[in-house]
Amino acid sequence: MTSLHVRPRPADADGCVIDITPESAGWSYVGFSVFHLEPGQTVTRRAENREVLLVLVEGSAKLAAAGRDYGELGDRTSVFQRLKPFALYVGAGMDWSAEAATRVTLAACSAPAEGTYEPRLIIPDDIGLDVRGKDTNERTIHPIMMEDQDWAERLLVTEVFTPAGHWSSYPPHRHDEDDFPNQTYLEETYYHRLDPPQGYAHHRIYTDRRDDGMRDLDQTVTVSDGDVTLVPRGYHPVGAPYGYDLYYLNVMAGPLRKWRFRNDPDHDWIVQRDSAA
């Protein structure tokens, strides 16, 4: 089975430290890359038959796509400032480039597409803010490009801030069946960051029990700052230890650009209790 844990590698000539493709992940839709760029360094790519969302995770860069220059963007030096990001949507078949003005962490999220939509700049004012859960299940969401933004073909992208000692993607849920409107099949990546950076978090990925009481998949991955976890199927809760705030950037894609999920029935009582409170 493909490893569900991807660690950053030394940067190549383009600054790429993470490069997840459908082929390397063993699935069909989600691609995810991370670039660490030094001031003045430029990366250029062509989207080919995939749509791309460029997310300026940290730092400032000049972004361009399909012959249009969007200027210098980005004003957060750390994700833990909790500022909303700048992002640029690039349709399939289009070129894009990023030239770093400062040290930059750039994420390139991708999925198969036909080239239906033109490039679109997303600024912080375009992004909402949601608070989910309560008590030690509370976390803050920046929905960068979810299904209510109907100018993408398959991609769904959001970022989540989980305070130290809290749980996230919890109660556990899954979205691995093509059964709309009850559930949608969505592959997913989690790009993790930690503050302070020497910390760690736990990400469990597991399926329902079979008739014999066993699970087809049950892995708990200990992630460090900059690691990525793959969620091909199953439930996938995340826990942040005391003392370490956790950020992650989620990328989802599948045959239908809708996010519908099913909670683990063993733990769904938590949702029912909190809803009734």
Could you describe the largest sheet, including whether it forms a barrel?
Answer: 7 strands, antiparallel
Class in CATH? Mainly Beta
Q: Which strand-content bin applies to the residues?
A: 35-45%
CATH level-3 fold name: Jelly Rolls
Describe the structure.
The structure is a single chain. The protein is mainly β. The chain has a single domain (5-276), classed as Jelly Rolls, CATH 2.60.120. The protein contains 2 helices and 23 strands. It has helices spanning 22-25, 269-276, and strands at residues 5-6, 16-20, 31-37, 42-46, 50-58, 61-65, 68-73, 87-90, 95-100, 104-112, 120-122, 130-132, 139-145, 156-162, 167-168, 173-174, 187-195, 201-206, 218-223, 228-231, 238-239, 245-253, 262-263. The radius of gyration is 18 Å and the shape is globular. It starts with a strand and ends with a helix. The model has no long low-confidence stretch (mean pLDDT 97).
Characterize this entry briefly:
This protein has 2 helices and 23 strands. By secondary structure, it is mainly beta.
Per-chain topology:
Layout: E1 5-6, E2 16-20, H1 22-25, E3 31-37, E4 42-46, E5 50-58, E6 61-65, E7 68-73, E8 87-90, E9 95-100, E10 104-112, E11 120-122, E12 130-132, E13 139-145, E14 156-162, E15 167-168, E16 173-174, E17 187-195, E18 201-206, E19 218-223, E20 228-231, E21 238-239, E22 245-253, E23 262-263, H2 269-276
Antiparallel strand pairs: 1-20, 2-3, 3-10, 4-9, 5-8, 5-10, 6-7, 6-9, 8-11, 12-13, 13-14, 14-22, 15-21, 16-23, 17-20, 17-22, 18-19, 18-21
